[in-house]
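Narrative progress, year one. The postdoctoral researcher (J.K.) led the effort to move from monomer predictions toward full complexes, under supervision of the PI. The following entry was the first complex the group processed end to end, covering 414 residues in total.
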Amino acid sequence: MVVTKNLYLKTQGQCDIVDITPRVAKEVSASGVKDGLVTVFVSGSTAGLTTIEYESGLIADFKSLWQRIAPAGLPYEHDGRWGDGNGFSHVRASLLGASLVVPFAGGKLALGTWQQIVLVDFDNRPRSREVVLQIMGD
Amino acid sequence: MVVTKNLYLKTQGQCDIVDITPRVAKEVSASGVKDGLVTVFVSGSTAGLTTIEYESGLIADFKSLWQRIAPAGLPYEHDGRWGDGNGFSHVRASLLGASLVVPFAGGKLALGTWQQIVLVDFDNRPRSREVVLQIMGD
Amino acid sequence: MVVTKNLYLKTQGQCDIVDITPRVAKEVSASGVKDGLVTVFVSGSTAGLTTIEYESGLIADFKSLWQRIAPAGLPYEHDGRWGDGNGFSHVRASLLGASLVVPFAGGKLALGTWQQIVLVDFDNRPRSREVVLQIMGD
């Protein structure tokens, strides 16, 4: 059985980190699939997906990591050509990755207690985002 | 067909890198599924999964990479609030990712000869870990 | 339904970034599966997979990111032991990851308009690569 759903959300950009766990859990539950996996995929090239313990200290720490390894202030060739000023957003998104796969059994996601599914929006402005959830299983 | 299995393992923490390939291969074989994929997922927010050529030089090199890009010695807001001292562990885990998907055909994982599936435990102390294997296919 | 296909491609190594989107889309279309997911997996431990807006500025920017966080010029223990000189290639590949999962519905991949699937070959020489595509769904 395959069920495909789109989530729509608004972000603030600038490394905004949005907890989408409740919405993913709700769609898994609504699908009627008991054992299987949910693939979470963000359409677009300036956002990514991962899991994190969603507390404000770590949210700040994760943003600092990105500023350290892919700083916003460097010269990017993308910016020279296109003038969007979001070259840093693109390379961060490509490093983090656009897909995440989470198994579930008995309708329950295999997440740890302190582990949430998040969208990270690296773009340099507020965005409307489309996240595809695909639920597959029995 | 969907088969879900849990692997339990003990790690030393501190970027301990554990080769779980034989256990994954064994569960795929035992499942009776011939063609499909195995989703490997670690429950918890201070460990991640990837593949690597499992030899001691690279194990050391990969640890050095993490110390370079997400050093243990920086101030982390997570540590200021919670006192666990493992802020660096969390941000590393979120960057590496909690899931890995490996296809197999004819019962054989699509890994290269020098490519092993590993759990990387970034926590700052020994841990007991639960890794979910979900096997799906025909 | 499960369909497994291998893509064969040649790269220049040295962070060569190859757009494989048309080949993935073609195999999804040829499979006859309408709704499902395609798992893209690279066999080998010196290459990875991700998505990126495939334009020459960003290609250069993404290469610069890798040289910043996992420089080719550092001493690597792998190189001391095996003499391949590609320790940097291995740690980059382990960080980026060997698998990518893309959902599709109605035969159309859930990619954004400016989002391509790419193989990144981190090795220090030209390589022949095998990428496994596994298509699963209805």
